[in-house]
Amino acid sequence: MAEYIESLQRLAEQFGRLEGIGKKSAMRMAFSVLDMSAETAQELASAIIEAKERIHLCPICQNITDRDTCLVCADEGRDKSVICVVADPKAVISMEKVREYKGVYHVLGGVISPMNGVTPDKLRIKELLSRLNDGEVREVIVATNPTVEGEATAMYLSRILKPLGVTVSRLAYGISVGADIEYADAVTLNRALEGRREI
Q1: Which of 41, 55, 87, 95 counts the highest number of beta carbons within 10 A?
Q2: What is the C-alpha separation between 140 and 33, in angstroms, rounded?
Q3: What is the CATH number of the domain that holds 135?
Q4: What's the CA gap between 172 and 181, in Å, rounded?
């Protein structure tokens, strides 16, 4: 019956466009919205629109932010000589939960994946290279996921960064192969950071 209510179906279809949301979950989310008060539904809609309007890329590290620069780049206490390179903003959030890493980040916006049409020129690698121009950076930690694409990206970065005189290291394998960094617990991430190795 719900399939015949056009506005409910349209709402479920929009939820279904979200990553990781299947048809059943999308329909449950649509019914949840129906159960909300009009005021709560308006707050949800406003939060979505505000996030889309205000959140942009940090001009330094390419992470998402709603300020001129992200909180990490703006923090004078961070060690700007160490850059942790990650594929996406979710990995930054996971790394920050550890509370052990004191350097800064660079978000690539993905990993090299020729089968999916993602070549090095489609990542934010040139922005990373421009950060190395002042000579302040001494180490780049490549923290891409231990997948085929993540490893290919790490090797590519190692080849282009080593000639620039910086140490290029990789997170140690406290994170299992095929796993996503965003799902790793704090202890595993901390061990991976401590056991990183040069590549």
Answers
A1: 95
A2: 44
A3: 3.40.1360.10
A4: 12
Give tens-digit pLDDT for 118-159: 999 999 999 999 999 888 999 999 999 988 899 999 999 999
DSSP for 152-172, written as a single string: HHHHHHHHHHGGGT-EEEE--
Tell me how far apart the alpha carbons of residues 153 and 199 are, in angstroms, rounded to a whole number. 12
CA separation for the pair 80, 104 (Å, rounded):
6
3-state secondary structure of 82: strand
Q: Give the C-alpha separation, 36 to 32, whole Å.
A: 7
State pLDDT tens for residues 70-80. 999 999 999 99
Cβ–Cβ < 8 Å for 192, 170: no
Is 12:27 a contact under the CB 8 Å cutoff? yes
The tens digit of pLDDT for each residue in 26-52 reads: 999 999 999 999 999 999 999 999 999
Q: What is the CATH number of the domain that holds 7?
A: 1.10.8.420
For the chain, the domain total comes to: 2
